Amino acid sequence: MTGEIVSPWxxxxxxxxxxxxxxxxxxxxxxxxxxxxxxxxGKEPLSRATLEGLVAALHLTEEDTVTxxxxxxxxxxxxxxxxxxxxxxxxxxxxxxxxxxxxxxxxLLARSPAGRPSSDALPSxxxxxxxxxxxxxxxxxxxxxxxxxxxEWEAVWHPRPEDRVEGEELWSRLERFPARERLLLVDAxxxxxxxxxxxxxxxxxxxxxxxxxxxxHGLAELALRIATRVPGExxxxxxxxxFALAHLGNVRQAQGDLDGAAEALREARRLWDAGASGDPxxxxxxxxxxxxxxxxxxxxxxxxxxxx
Length: 308
Hints:
Elements: E1 5-6, H1 9-18, H2 22-29, H3 33-40, E2 46-47, H4 48-57, H5 62-71, H6 87-99, H7 137-157, H8 163-174, H9 179-188, H10 195-208, H11 213-227, H12 234-254, H13 258-274, H14 287-296, H15 302-306
Antiparallel strand pairs: 1-2
Helix pairs in contact: 1-5, 1-7, 4-7, 5-7, 6-9, 8-10, 9-11, 10-11, 10-12, 11-12, 12-13, 12-14, 13-14
């Protein structure tokens, strides 16, 4: 097959946004249910031309595009700030986000490739074109959103060692802010919901555990907060949360809170083991056993108990 190949997530997202079964999408587009299944499962490559044909067959209007765009699941969604934030905190979030070079977006379609097109800038009606090319201007716009978001899902669903470069860059931007402002930024800006940033902050917490317990504790809690927001599979998120909790337990032990440390490490062990299938071998598996040995000593650690 020639031509650009796009992520199977594009088709998954299309069905999710429209809440269509394969049978329903098959009826609307003319593609067989087996072909749709093979494309989604990655058994057959999904070309951009094929995806264009599917979107073109839907004959999307402006209203359809806005509705589907708003319903499309985001790999890195812009999170709601929540009603518990004061006006002053909201202002601080906006100011901080601007400082790190990211403007907070509230529009549901803000993650489109070039921003939502203006109605008066688009030709009305259908546009001439060859078969397989999206004729509707709104259809082409939606196709761009679909391809970009599919790439986002592909990236977050398959974490890779090279992601650590981005984690370092994110930490270099985040570390210059005080602890409370870091929390605000993590809550407000989904770009910080990154697994390698969580890992980097955990390691920073471990380094500071013997020098600055207060900062080490804050970093471990920040890492845990990030872990709960990282997109991807539930098992991968559980593994990250276990990794972060292990570092929180380490700091609590250094603070003399042995009961709190034991509680954190037991929960870390549960999450770490539960998420084993989601980790492609990226996280250091020696850290949690080491923290367990430091706390429990000669006693049977949760990890040893689970292995029996």
